[in-house]
Amino acid sequence: MHLEKTPTTSLAIFCKVVDNYGDIGICWRLARQLEQEHQIAVTLWVDDLHSFQRICPAVNIHCDEQRLANVVIKRWHNQEAQFTPDDIADIVIEFFACDIPPAYITAMSMCVPRPVWLNLEGLTAEEWVEGCHTLPSPHPRLPLTKHFFFPGFTNKTGGLLLEAELEKNRKAFQSDPVAIRNFLAQLGVTPPEMTAFKVSLFCYPQAPVSALFKAWESSSSPVICLVPEGVASSAVGMFLGEEALAGTSSTRGALTVRVLPFVPQPDYDKLLWACDLNFVRGEDSFVRAQWAGKPFIWHIYPQDENLHHVKLKAFLQRYSPDIASAITFSLAWNNALNHEDAVDWSLMWPSFLADIQKITNRSIDWQAQLHKNGDLSSNLLRFARLLK
Ligand code: TRH
């Protein structure tokens, strides 16, 4: 029997790092998954290798082109770069409406057949997304059409990034106390700290960290707050009485704060899996916390005129409309309570903690609901193949 070899599909992702780690975090996760689970030949164009190296220490920041996890990584530093149709991938993804080089677009328009061109958008729980997901946007001059692709929480969106093995790996890790202990020990967590209520903290500098620390200090049982280096440095430094460097820690009342090294991306999942409560932010850690099956509090990326409060409320409405303590806590963490509402963390924390089992159960139900939407990479490829 003669088996015809199907040519490998090629795909390029263009990623502009606006700030922090979420842009590259999402693109790198997507790139690896497309390569590993779908055998796509992926090239990831990224303009900031320093941010990339923080979440993936194997990245060489001096290299214009390198291959990691079988993905070709190219430094994107020149909008004037020249391209011919031979350089163009079968599927082209621009992340978050970043402007891909004009010559790349011109070369795309000269390809036969034309590549699929997608704009992968940011995540929001707002309803309008369902109406915009997969909408076409014809190029004003060239014979090309770009399509919008929205991640999301319903089956009328592209879903969320989710690796095929994630659930299996998480369950194996969470049911192996030795693996959890070894993992935490390697990050510097001491045996007595491991028995405390474990919280991981990842947030923007505006979060009311000092006020929450005060409430934890007078908690009825020990709390250990694990915070990666570089996160909430000023509040953490104030608590510690010294610069918040990896390895430093201090205890006051019931609270111990310990600064961890900023871990590589796969270890960040393990940190979420190992903790009893996770504070996450932005987009990617927010999604990972949802896959961790543990209670989490989201610090949303701040926008002008508090636009982010609308997005926060849209998510909370979907996620936990019936758990008042969780909603109040999340709103207060994001400074989104009505002005008349006084924020008293020493009251809010115990009432959140009293509902922790209910909140955990909700996070498990939510996860099951999300699974029904499939995973973003497979959904994206299915859509791209429809357009071919
Ligand atoms: O870092 P973020 O705030 O990123 C983004 C960007 O600011 C972006 O411009 C904006 O659009 C978006 O938020 C909403 O948060 P995020 O999205 O959670 O990304 C953090 C990444 O860093 C994620 O991939 C997990 C990873 N990470 C590690 O690998 N190790 C760590 O120790 C920590 C704390 C995070």
From the structure above, extract its key features.
Rossmann fold; 2 domains; binds 2'-deoxy-thymidine-beta-L-rhamnose; 14 strands; six-stranded mixed β-sheet; eight-stranded mixed β-sheet; 388 residues; alpha/beta; globular; single chain; 16 helices
Write a structural description.
The protein is an alpha/beta fold and 388 residues long. It folds into two domains: 3-160 and 374-387, Rossmann fold, CATH 3.40.50; 166-371, Rossmann fold. It has helices at residues 22-38, 49-55, 102-110, 128-132, 166-174, 177-186, 191-194, 209-217, 233-240, 265-274, 284-292, 307-319, 324-333, 345-354, 356-371, 376-387, and strands at residues 10-15, 41-46, 65-68, 71-75, 91-95, 116-120, 136-138, 145-149, 197-201, 223-228, 249-252, 255-260, 277-281, 296-299. The relative contact order is 0.12. The mean pLDDT is 96. 2'-deoxy-thymidine-beta-L-rhamnose is lined by residues 18-23, 25, 55, 122, 202, 228, 262-265, 268, 281-286, 301.
User: Which sequence of SSEs, written as H and E, runs from N to C?
Assistant: EHEHEEEHEHEEHHHEHEHEEHEHEHHHHH
* Name given to the CATH architecture of the largest domain: 3-Layer(aba) Sandwich
CATH superfamily of the largest domain: Glycogen Phosphorylase B
- Spans where pLDDT lies below 50 across 5 or more residues: none
What is the tally of helical segments? Answer: 16
CATH class (first level) name of the largest domain = Alpha Beta
Percent of residues in helices: 40-55%
Give a count of the beta strands, DSSP E runs of length 2 or more.
Answer: 14
Instruction: List cofactors, ions and other ligands.
Output: 2'-deoxy-thymidine-beta-L-rhamnose
